[in-house]
Write a structure and sequence with these properties.
This protein is α+β, with helices and mostly antiparallel strands and 385 residues long. The chain is 21% helix and 35% strand. Strands 4-5-6-11-8-7 form a six-stranded antiparallel β-barrel.
Amino acid sequence: MKILNIFLISIFCSVSTTAFADRVKDLTDVGGVRSNQLVGYGLVVGLGGTGDGKDLPFTGQSLKSFLSGLGVSVDGPISEFDLGDSLRDLAGQNARKDLKLENVAAVMVTAELPPFIKPGQRIDINVSAIGVASSLRGGNLIMAELKGVDGEIYALAQGPLTVTGISVNAAGTSVEIGVPTSGRIPNGAIVERMVKTPFGSSSHVVLNVRDADFSTSNAIANMINETFGWGTAEALDSVSVVLAVPDDGRQRVAFMSAVENLEVVPGEPTARVIVNSRTGTAVINRSVRVTAAAVSHGAITVRINTDNEVVQPNAFAEGETAEVANADIQVTEGGAGNMFMFESGVELRDIVDAVNRIGATPSSLIAILEALKRSGSLRAELVVI
């Protein structure tokens, strides 16, 4: 019997009416307390000939600018001699040829700045090649500025890369495992600037429900009011719950610590079926229901046989020898009896059991779910990715 590749993602392992509570911290986010994205440009040096080389002009320009900032003249001390323009240009070209750009790669550096992080603390960074470098393995990132959307510098990144991918070329044969042009530096950036949040100065704190639901936001507000007194929390909509918090900073932190550990029974999730057409995976949550419907499952097989022949012209004819492909097409339909019925109000387990009994493949399951949705029998949102 064929077993479907079905993952039943829900709070319950089986269809049950028992409700379990979740902590407020697992259901909500604090408004204004968020991470910020940082991005920067840098150079990775010390590569074993796998860098950008001379094919990427701005890599050489970046290295020249960086060395100039350190007081290193890339073009050499030509100004000390009374040379003509042509000789000066030739000397400059010879000096630039000495730069081993095969060991240098231009990279993009990205990071996520957590909320409340303070200057001097460290964050992880991601480094990705943006040029023609074939590998960043063994490289070392030299100091790169990480900026926010406002253009301000929030962190400085530097350090040796950790690259899990590998690429090897020899005698015209190449082997590549993973992605050698991308790596990470754990704790590779030092925070230089703190992002201000309204948490410490605002008279109210807003909790935003991650999965918008009126029942969940109302349940959170009621639980907070029952614990700390009515009027402490107010549900504004399906997402936001406003809290009246103490003015003192220490009391505010203690209050939020108590709030986020309260246990609340969230509302029932929206009935949803998610189908991945590429992998044949179907995810069905426990709220899915089906009205009365009959489903017939059958398989149609198309078989095409090609017989290649060579046609010779008659003797003394002016024709030419030609190849002819003769195709034989046969269409067969699966046997009858693969029909089952859904009664009104059928739940998740009944759907899975019925589809498993007929031995449907994942692709057949997708077709069945789409047909049920089109007929109006599937009481759920069908999402195909």
